[in-house]
Specification:
Elements: H1 3-22, E1 27-29, H2 30-37, H3 41-49, E2 64-66, H4 67-74, H5 82-96
Antiparallel strand pairs: 1-2
Helix pairs in contact: 2-3
């Protein structure tokens, strides 16, 4: 085995260990939060400045993040699947007494076009 190959493998193992340690920490630094979220540090700062992502800045210094809050933020604003939209349409039709075969409906019919045709 070449020395370069061994160094690459060791760096890969080191990276995985760092990522695993992030899962054990409750509070993350900006750099750790960016790694955890898979974002660049500059984009993380942009999200913080827009107040899109929860962050803490004690004494006006460094930024800190609660890992659980980041996890919840990542899972926010869930998009429904086509089958969930069809099921909701079926339930709504039944509730309103409308007889309709929702199996033939296209979910895109229910998305507003904002005045575009």
């Amino acid at each position: 085995m070449s020395t370069n190959f061994i160094i690459q493998k060791l760096e890969s193992i080191e990276k995985m260990l760092k990522q695993q340690s992030l899962l054990k920490k409750e509070v993350l630094t900006s750099r750790e939060a960016a790694i955890y979220l898979g974002l660049s540090l500059s984009y993380l700062y942009e999200l913080v400045s827009k107040k899109t992502i929860p962050a803490y800045k004690p004494n006006g210094g460094k930024l800190y993040f609660k890992r659980k809050e980041l996890y919840n933020w990542m899972l926010s604003k869930r998009k429904a699947s086509n089958s969930e939209i069809k099921e909701a349409a079926t339930q709504f039709s039944a509730k309103m007494g409308i007889k309709s075969d929702c199996k033939s409906l296209d979910p895109s019919q229910f998305v507003p076009n904002n005045g575009r045709n």
